[in-house]
């Protein structure tokens, strides 16, 4: 997530890796963790490379919006981990 937010990896690489990792996860996780990770999954699933910033819909988001949503998910994950 950090590599994508910091533009170390491309949106295509992040999309491919995140979807694969999330779909193949087999360990149980609590509801809060699942909600955070699933929210990021849904954002990745809505990403469309031709969607310009500011023209997002409920079903299509831009790369800029995806970075924003992944960044928010990472903040939530870090806050959750601080409480463990």
UniProtKB/TrEMBL annotation:
One Pfam family this sequence matches: Colicin_immun
GO terms for biological process, alphabetical: bacteriocin immunity
Domain Colicin D immunity protein residue range list: 2-77
Molecular-function GO terms, alphabetical: toxic substance binding
Protein name: Colicin D immunity protein domain-containing protein
């Amino acid at each position: 997530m950090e590599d994508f937010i910091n533009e170390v990896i491309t949106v295509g690489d992040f999309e491919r890796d995140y979807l694969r990792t999330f779909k193949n996860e087999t360990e149980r996780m609590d509801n809060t963790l699942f909600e955070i990770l699933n929210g990021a999954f849904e954002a990745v699933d809505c990403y469309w490379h031709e969607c310009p910033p500011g023209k997002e819909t409920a079903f299509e988001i831009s790369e800029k919006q995806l970075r924003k949503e992944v960044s928010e998910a990472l903040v939530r994950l870090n806050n959750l981990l601080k409480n463990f």
